[in-house]
Amino acid sequence: xxxxxxxxxxxxxxxxxxxxxxxxxxxxxxxxxxxxxxxxxxxxxxxxxxxxxxxxxxxxxxxxxxxxxxxxxxxxxxxxxxxxxxxxxxxxxxxxxxxxxxxxxxxxxxxxxxxxxxxxxxxxxxxxxxxxxxxxxxxxxxxxxxxxxxxxxxxxxxxxxxxxxxxxxxxxxxxxxxxxxxxxxxxxxxxxxxxxxxxxxxxxxxxxxxxxxxxxxxxxxxxxxxxxxxxxxxxxxxxxxxxxxxxxxxxxxxxxxxxxxxxxxxxxxxxxxxxxxxxxxxxxxxxxxxxxxxxxxxxxxxxxxxxxxxxxxxxxxxxxxxxxxxxxxxxxxxxxxxxxxxxxxxxxxx
Length: 350
What we know:
Blueprint: E1 9-10, H1 13-19, E2 28-32, E3 35-45, E4 51-61, H2 68-79, E5 90-96, E6 99-105, H3 112-117, H4 127-147, E7 151-153, E8 162-164, E9 170-172, E10 179-181, H5 205-210, H6 215-231, E11 239-241, E12 244-246, H7 248-257, H8 275-288, H9 299-307
Parallel strand pairs: 1-5
Antiparallel strand pairs: 2-3, 3-4, 4-6, 5-6, 7-10, 8-9, 11-12
């Protein structure tokens, strides 16, 4: 396989096999439709011939996947060119004897969902960390949509794909459903995931009608993540309230309408949060979750709202109804900027 400009390090399969203890089950971090992710340790020598150890995460693609090589090459094409402090860094790659592997920085604090749902109340993410995480993800999203030389739609924004370094800085990972945007298409009908990639609760309503990903549908996914992190509840799990079941966004919208949106806050925070910041983030989460794509805020405004330099968005008391516009205006202004670079699907959750 020819080297691409600026290509990260090429590893020998033997190196990665040794680093992961022969891909031992105890080293497994996560699994998805296209393979498994393992934790590993690289043993190298620096320029002074001193032994060094580096923790890594290794994504090993399934060998029996016919499309494996195409998925691998497509992912590599995009990922190796992305450079941002809030994206998981691609360290290197391996393609040897039909085996396809990608090597990433290891994130010692795992994924956000583990901190929200698999820790005790005493060890839950504090308010400062939650705000820091959301600011980081918003920054990464803005980069992908506006600062990279191509637009990139992630298409699978969710808590399990947000990884945390040793200082709880967020790193957006798992570009397994990502797509680089150029001048042609943004259909993702090729993916065999019940027609629509992503996870229920994070997928924008228009995606079920068009099967197309846009920057606006990523903003919708970000809105779900905002509500999840602030409320400590999964967007995919119904909330029982007065004998009725609500989705997370519908429940928060009801609280907003009734003037008690602060009651949606994660109770494990024990009121240890800044009320104005919380109110601003909850309203931002609702604004990003607007059923009509064109009404969602742009990533620049999202970053400014989180930073507190722009007021909270205006959110109507009742959630608007999703309405399909006329064919002439059915597609977003960004739709003309989409391509068909397809990548693999795997959840890298630690």
